[in-house]
Amino acid sequence: MATAEEQSSVEAAGMSKAGKRLRTPGSKSVGWALVQAARLHRSRIGDRLAALDLFAGQEQVVQALAMAGTMTMGDLAATLRVRPPTASKTISRLAALGFVERRAEAGDGRVVRVRLTEVGLAKAAAIERIWDDVEAELLDGFDNKERRRLRKLLRRAAGNLAEISGIEGHEIDREADAEIDGEDEPDALVVPLTADQGKRPF
Fold this sequence. Notes:
Layout (H helix, E strand, L loop, with lengths): L3 H9 L17 H20 L8 H11 L1 E3 H8 L3 H13 L3 E6 L2 E9 L1 H21 L5 H22 L8 H8 L21
Helix pairs in contact: 2-6, 3-6, 4-5, 7-8
């Protein structure tokens, strides 16, 4: 008869009393595998973001502003698909860190425009490197064709749920899907933003 300590050891290793490895509730579910991969990816990104004084989720604001240059608070909330108060709270925190700056629209003080500071632009470049590094870790051992195929399938899965839920912005790009189904091609070159790019005057 196993001692309590031995039993705990077996359970910790994911084994049953019969010596068989216990299956997770969704071991045959695509959704379960997707959730686990997403959770581990988010955790890894979060660990790396901590070195930049950012929390998981805040980097999306920085990335959106790096792409757009200048955005109104309303546009930012719509882009991130969050409520305006949520976007405003995140911007306030990033402003306190010196990553973003806000300015009221000339002639209409109700409209607030936001953009990255020089420090924020440097953070955006660092975030891009983190995403590239973690993606390389995530897809280690995948060839280019497998990577493109996986990207296509995930987009289609997201599009299915978005359509049922009535969420806009996740339409399936048939043209991109056809391109991914073609022969192996080099991935598109992504040129990172420099400190002078992506900036627009208020």
